């Protein structure tokens, strides 16, 4: 087991290193931070631009390989470099990871828990009306891309606010900095409502489909019948025996979804004006911010691999067959 | 024989029937609809900026006086073409890479699967986003290739594992002992035996690619002007959605309908092609 884990760790670190390096080369050769300084009024002398860019390790006159070596030696020691305007990428990333976590934590948990519950319920009520309604709505929701969903939610929120005459639902930003204490806390919660819905709805649809299928597989098996036959109530048999066994795939997806969403909630973050990692992905490209692009790629690659690793651990914890072998 | 059974099952499956019907209607709307409308997609009506849907402009106009009906259908044509092309390329790539990795084994397998892992780890959104605006002036076919390049990996793993078991079957062994070269065995014996998986995968890829194109175009990383697609239209409409909802609702609605109909067909195909299915 130890040797396997070590081997896996080495191959993962290698993959992350290659992925991040490729992203760096791509960003360094095709983005143009110099454009940010040129064409200003009053014009900036070229020598000054060069000196500034040199300072941030962004000068396109330095050979790309030399810049890469400077960047990589910084990354190894935990320094991700500077943004195009000279701020520390590390600080910016720390702040943005916090924003993304505050947004995602509730959204993914709500999505997973509600999805699994709905799916299990649909399986128990197979072919009844409620099962069909759940199935059709999940199918329709899965066809709606998140940017359409999020925009529709803002449209609805504006409509509600307009008819009520005051702002019931907030739809931009993370909080109102003018408020403090308890007011600010409720204001933060209000700002969370719409993004959470837009994140959770798709996941609910997705998990409910997986969970329904898994639950149906399990419900037909002997051990559930045995549990009922030895006198357990229907509720205990369903919850303790059937639901627990059928949770494995949903749990693996949960770990994976959380990892990829850290940079993948781009649309939700952009549309609702949250400045998290997902929004940075787009912003850094638009602002020709080479080091930030490389940092986001590095972070995304680490997240995918850690999530894959975590989902394996969860399977091992839930499924005794995997644990033994 | 088998294809007959499949078709009969497909025809009896209500999901697939509705999906196909919807898709045919949408295709007709995209390709015949523009001839019925009063305006061409390049026309600009300088007497009507941002006017709501009316008898003259069925779906309203944009801020530069374009007819939303004509522009949206033009964008839908592009989205449909992109969806089908990406699905074709990516499923083809998945079949060839997966079958080669599974059939040849050894270092070929290791190298190909490692490459697939690498592509999975690379943030595809970011890479396409950096590259594709720099293809300006180039053809949008590059964009199709980029989208396809990042969407074959998971299927190729499935194909590989199925090839591993096909490789030991009698008909493949017989072909091998007759001295037929490996690539021919892959094309003639292995890929055709995976056709049901590949057909389902291609269908799912169509809707995935349509959404992917729209997602990238939403941030201006996809189809570049003056070309339009559903994604660019949705992006342009969503910034004005509160005042001028028709700019957003028509392209977004068509996108959802398109994806929904393709998904319905995919689901129906899955049932029809599943040998264990009782329907």
Folded structure, characterized:
The complex is a heterodimer of chains A (325) and B (279). Chain A is built from 14 helices and no strands. Chain A has 325 residues and is mainly alpha-helical. The longest helix of chain A is centred in the middle third of the chain and has 39 residues. Chain A has one domain: MetI-like fold. Helices cover 76% and strands 0% of the residues of chain A. With 279 residues, chain B is an all-alpha fold. In chain B, 71% of the residues lie in helices and 0% in strands. Chain B is built from 13 helices and no strands. In chain B, α4 crosses α12 and α9 runs antiparallel to α10. Chain B is elongated. The mean pLDDT of chain B is 85. Chains A and B meet through α1, α5, α6, α11 and α12 of A and α5, α6, α11 and α13 of B. Chain A: It is found in: Cell membrane. Chain A: Pfam families: BPD_transp_1. Chain A: Belongs to the binding-protein-dependent transport system permease family. Chain A: InterPro entries: MetI-like (IPR000515), MetI-like_sf (IPR035906). Chain A: This is Peptide ABC transporter permease.
């Amino acid at each position: 087991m130890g040797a396997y884990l070590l081997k896996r760790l080495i191959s993962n670190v290698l993959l992350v290193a290659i992925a991040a390096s490729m992203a760096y080369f791509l960003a360094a050769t095709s983005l143009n931070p110099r454009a940010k300084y040129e064409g200003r009024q009053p014009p900036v002398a070229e020598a000054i631009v060069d000196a500034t860019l040199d300072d941030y390790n962004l000068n396109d006159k330095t050979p790309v390989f030399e810049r890469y070596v400077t960047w990589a030696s910084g990354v190894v020691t935990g320094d991700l470099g500077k943004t195009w305007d000279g701020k520390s990428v590390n600080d910016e990333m720390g702040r943005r990871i916090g924003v993304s976590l505050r947004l995602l934590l509730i959204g993914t948990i709500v999505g997973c828990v509600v999805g699994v519950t709905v799916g299990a319920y649909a399986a128990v009520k197979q072919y009844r009306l409620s099962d069909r309604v759940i199935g059709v709505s999940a199918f329709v929701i899965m066809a709606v891309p998140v940017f359409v969903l999020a925009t529709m939610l803002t449209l609805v929120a504006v409509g509600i606010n307009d008819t009520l005459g005051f702002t019931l639902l907030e739809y931009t930003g993370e909080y109102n900095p003018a408020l403090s204490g308890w007011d600010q806390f409720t204001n933060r919660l209000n700002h969370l409502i719409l993004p959470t819905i837009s994140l959770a709805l798709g996941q609910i649809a997705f998990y409910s489909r997986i969970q329904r299928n898994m639950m149906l597989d399990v419900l037909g098996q002997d051990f559930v019948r045995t549990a009922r036959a030895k006198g357990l109530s229907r509720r205990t048999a369903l919850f303790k025996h059937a639901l627990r066994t059928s949770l494995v795939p949903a749990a693996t997806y949960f770990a994976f979804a959380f990892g990829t969403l850290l940079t993948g909630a781009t649309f939700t973050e952009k549309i609702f004006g949250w400045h998290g990692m997902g929004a940075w992905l787009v912003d850094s490209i638009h602002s020709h911010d080479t080091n930030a692009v490389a940092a986001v790629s590095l972070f995304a690659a680490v997240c995918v691999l850690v999530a894959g690793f975590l989902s394996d651990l969860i399977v091992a914890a839930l499924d005794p067959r995997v644990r033994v072998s | 024989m088998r294809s007959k059974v499949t078709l009969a099952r497909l025809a009896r499956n209500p999901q697939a029937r509705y999906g196909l019907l919807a898709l045919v209607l949408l295709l007709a709307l995209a390709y015949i609809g523009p001839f019925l409308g009063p305006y061409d997609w390049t026309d600009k009506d300088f007497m009507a900026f941002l006017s709501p849907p009316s008898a003259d402009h069925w779906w309203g106009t944009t801020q530069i006086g374009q007819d939303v009906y004509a522009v949206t259908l033009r964008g839908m044509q592009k989205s449909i073409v992109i969806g089908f092309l990406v699905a074709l390329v990516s499923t083809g790539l998945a079949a060839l890479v997966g079958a080669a990795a599974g059939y040849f084994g050894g270092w070929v397998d290791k190298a190909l699967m490692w490459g697939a892992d690498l592509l999975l780890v690379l943030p595809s959104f970011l890479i396409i986003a950096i590259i594709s605006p720099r293809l300006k002036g180039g053809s949008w076919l590059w964009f199709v290739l980029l989208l396809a390049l990042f969407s074959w990996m998971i299927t190729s793993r499935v194909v590989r594992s199925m090839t591993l078991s096909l490789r030991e079957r009698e008909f493949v062994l017989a072909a091998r002992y007759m001295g037929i070269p490996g690539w021919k065995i892959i094309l003639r014996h292995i890929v055709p035996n995976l056709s049901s998986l590949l057909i389902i995968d291609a269908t799912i890829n169509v809707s995935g690619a349509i959404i992917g194109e729209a997602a990238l175009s939403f941030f201006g990383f996809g189809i570049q002007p003056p070309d339009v697609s559903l994604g660019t239209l949705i992006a342009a409409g969503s910034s004005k959605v509160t005042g001028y909802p028709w700019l957003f609702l028509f392209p977004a609605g068509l996108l959802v309908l398109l994806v929904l109909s393709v998904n319905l067909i995919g689901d129906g195909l899955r049932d029809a092609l599943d040998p264990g299915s009782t329907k």
